Structures are given as structure tokens and as C-alpha cells.
From TrEMBL:
InterPro entries: KduI, KduI/IolB_isomerase, KduI_N, RmlC-like_jellyroll, RmlC_Cupin_sf. Pfam families: KduI (PF04962). Zn(2+) binds at H194, H196, E201, H243. It is an enzyme of class 5 (isomerase). Keywords: Isomerase, Metal-binding, Zinc. It comes from the Bacteria. Its EC number is 5.3.1.17. Catalyzes the isomerization of 5-dehydro-4-deoxy-D-glucuronate to 3-deoxy-D-glycero-2,5-hexodiulosonate. This is 4-deoxy-L-threo-5-hexosulose-uronate ketol-isomerase. Its cofactor is Zn(2+).
Length: 276
């Protein structure tokens, strides 16, 4: 498990392209028959990916956690962005089609992943945060995730948002998680942008065609930066940073948050006229 420490707005403003990528971009999350994890010191969130192909993968603890098992003091959100697969949580099996979600709470001792068809493997995106209370394991399908239409084709940001783990959906200690799918011909997400200093956020981009990219914008509103991102890459967004993107074609992304405030709508707007 890779560990990344925090960066202040001042030092981030002085980073070159490669330094920005090393600190905030998470690549190669979906590796055959591996679980890849990155521990961020922004609200101690862990970003990960599990791609079972020819074997069943088990989520093990790591020395950095000083825990007997991975979810001893943590909770976990899992969203499948690949072929059909199964997540087993303490002996209970959940079949996940593409864009289905499973939540596993504090105290769960064993989580494992497998694909239904090795030629079309499941791709499980993982997001974990510390938890002070245990909540029951629960599955939510894409259709059950309160889909809501946002944006307009005239501004190239017509999209559908799906909420999975939040105050009115799957209950959690502090983790909030869902995803957004852009309509064909739309490329902008989360614009006008915002910050929320009470919690960090992570984006994971999926369904980005091989020949296309997403320009992900970050940084303080008055000093924005960008990262160029490919399919199945994630970005760590500090609480002081905006988080929005523009693709060269339509795509989807999973968003997840953790921190002090559990309220989904808690954000500080960054109007377009004020961005620099």
C-alpha cells in the first residue's frame, strides 16, 4: 500500500507537472489479479482497485494500519465498473453488475472479490475511510441509486448522477459515494466548481475511450492547475482544491468524500468569474 502525505496550497502552487502527478494522480489501479491501494493523509482515505481475473482476491490488512484486519476501524465503499462479479463480505455474497455498489462497515473481517467471467473481469473501485460506528453491509444497484438529471446540452454538461452512500441512501459513518455519467456530446463535469474545506474528495474516471483523455482541474480557485487523465485513473482532491473536469469525449466518474461534514450539499461555490 502506497502512502501519500498532505501538500499545502503554497507548495502545490510551485509544483511542476510531474510533481503534481506524483502527489495527486493515482494510476494503474486495475491490475490483473491484484488489489492496489493508496493511503492518503487527506482525511486518511484509501483509494483502491481490485481486478480479479483468474483468482479470488482477498482484502488484507497492511502494517501501516496497525489493525488486525482491514476494516477493524474503517468502512469501505465498492463500485463495479467492469464485467459481472461477486463481492463476499463475511460469508455473505453479493453479485454486482456494472455500476452496482456494496458497502461494508466497521468490524467486517473478510472481504473478497471474484469475476463471473475471466474474459470480462469485474473491476472493483474501492474507497475507504476511518469509521467510528458500524453500519450494516448493504448492496445498491445503479437503478436504486436515486438517478437524477443535471446540466444541459447547450453547456456540454448534460449528465446523470447516481447517489449510493449518503444520508438518504446507504448509511455510513462518514463516507459519501456515488457516480456521474455524462451524455454523449457532453464533456464538462462539476462546473461551476466548488470547494469544501470540511472534507476531501477523490474522483475515479471510467469509460474513457483509449484515444481520449480528461483534463481534470484542481488547485485553489484563484490558482487552478490541471492533470491530464486516462481511463481507470483516480485523482486525490484536497479540501482546499476545486475538482472538475473536461473530457475530449463523454465519460463517467465515481466521486467519493470523507471528512467532518456528512452533508452531500455542503460546498463553497467557486464562480467562473472568480477562477484564475
Amino acid at each position: 500500500m502506497e502512502v501519500r502525505f498532505q501538500n499545502s496550497p503554497k507548495e502545490t502552487a510551485a509544483m511542476n507537472t510531474e510533481e503534481l502527478r506524483q502527489n495527486f494522480l493515482v494510476q494503474q489501479l486495475m491490475a490483473d489479479d491484484q488489489i492496489k491501494l493508496v493511503y492518503s493523509h487527506y482525511d486518511r482515505v484509501i483509494v483502491g482497485g481490485a481486478k480479479p481475473v483468474g483468482s479470488t482476491l482477498t482484502l488484507e490488512t497492511h502494517p501501516e494500519l496497525r489493525a488486525d484486519y482491514f476494516l477493524e476501524r474503517r468502512e469501505l465503499g465498492i463500485i463495479n465498473v467492469g464485467g459481472e462479479g461477486t463481492v463476499e463480505v463475511d460469508g455473505e455474497s453479493f453479485s454486482l453488475k456494472k455500476l452496482d455498489c456494496v458497502y461494508a462497515g466497521k468490524g467486517v473481517k473478510k472481504v473478497s472479490f471474484k469475476s463471473s467471467d475471466a474474459s470480462k473481469p469485474a473491476l472493483f473501485y474501492l474507497l475507504s475511510s476511518p469509521a467510528h460506528q458500524n453500519y450494516p453491509t448493504r448492496k445498491l444497484t445503479k437503478e436504486e441509486a436515486q438517478p437524477g438529471a443535471l446540466g444541459d446540452q447547450s453547456t456540454a454538461n448534460k449528465r446523470t448522477i447516481y447517489k449510493y452512500i449518503h444520508a438518504e441512501g446507504i448509511q455510513s459513518a462518514q463516507l459519501v459515494m456515488g457516480l456521474t455519467v455524462l451524455d454523449e456530446g457532453s464533456v464538462w463535469n462539476t462546473m461551476p466548481s466548488h470547494t469544501h474545506t470540511r472534507r476531501m474528495e477523490a474522483y475515479f474516471y471510467f469509460d474513457v475511450k483509449e484515444e481520449h483523455r480528461v483534463f481534470h482541474f484542481m488547485g485553489q480557485p484563484q490558482e487552478t492547475r490541471h492533470l491530464l487523465m486516462a481511463n481507470h485513473e483516480a485523482v486525490i482532491s484536497p479540501p482546499w482544491s476545486i475538482h472538475s473536469g473536461c473530457g475530449t469525449a463523454a465519460y463517467g466518474f465515481i466521486w467519493g468524500m470523507a471528512g467532518e461534514n456528512y452533508t452531500y450539499t455542503d460546498m463553497d461555490p467557486a464562480p467562473l468569474k472568480d477562477l484564475r
